[in-house]
Every structure is written in structure tokens, then in C-alpha cells.
């Protein structure tokens, strides 16, 4: 076991924007896997998931406007987002090789880095790393951190990582 200073709860208490980010990633995943449309998935989440109980699990109250903005923005700008994510990945890990959840996390994080200059890079990267930790226990959260850090350096000229950027 590691000491308490080295471990965190798997998912920290999310604020309303954090809950909206998680819901947006889940919705993007569902759209990718099930082929659901934007309006259909937005209506489903707002009516049945955000702040509601689903199968015995209570979804945290989320900022519905933030949720809609991320979801609609990722769908609208996907042709711009994907090449940016692809450039930040290593050559042996093309975007198509990532599973749907990782693609959703990286697309949503990239969208916020590009379109939400009012939100600090550290907040965006940290929130999406936390989302990755909710779904993965291995190297995926580190991948999300590294990729979003590279993207933040390119699109905002700033990153939160230490050391020099791997190109």
C-alpha cells in the first residue's frame, strides 16, 4: 500500500463544471459507440442523467450549459480537433488506435484548450486527467496528461508539465 500522501481518491468530488466534463465525455463515448446524434444524446443526458439517479448511482449535479457547450463544440469542431490530437500523440499511437473513451477525453480536453481561453490550462488538464483516472488505472491518465500538455503548449503557448516537450 502507498501512503496517503501518494494516493488520492479515484475520483475527487467534482464541481458542476467537472461533472459536466465527465458527462460530456460519457455522452461523446455513447455517440461514438452507439452512433447516437447530438440532439438525441443532449436531451437524454439533460432529462435522465445530469443530477439524476441512474441504476442506483446518483449523477452529480452538472452545469448543463457547460455540458452542452463541450458536446456541441466537439461535434462541430471534430475535423479541427482530431488533427491536433493526432499531432500530439506518438507516431506508434494514432488516434484511431485509442479506445472511444480516450478519444472522447482527448477531444473534449482539446476543445476546451482551444476554445475556452478563460479557463486556465492547469484546470483543464487536471480535470481531464481526473476523468481518465475514473475510467483507467494504468497509463491512460499519464497519456491524457502528456497529450493535453503538448496541445496546450501548441495552442496556448503554455503547459503545466515539467521538462522539455517531446515532439
Automatic annotation (TrEMBL):
* Occurrences of domain NusB/RsmB/TIM44 (ranges): 20-153
InterPro entries attached to this UniProt entry: NusB-like_sf, NusB_fam, NusB_RsmB_TIM44
Give a yes or no for keyword Transcription regulation in this entry.
Answer: yes
Q: Which Pfam families match?
A: NusB
Family label:
Belongs to the NusB family.
In terms of NCBIfam families, this protein maps to: nusB
UniProt cross-references to HAMAP family, sorted A to Z: NusB
Briefly, what is this protein's role? Answer: Involved in transcription antitermination. Required for transcription of ribosomal RNA (rRNA) genes. Binds specifically to the boxA antiterminator sequence of the ribosomal RNA (rrn) operons.
The protein here is known as Transcription antitermination protein NusB
The uppermost taxa in this organism's lineage are: Bacteria, Pseudomonadati, Pseudomonadota, Alphaproteobacteria, Hyphomicrobiales
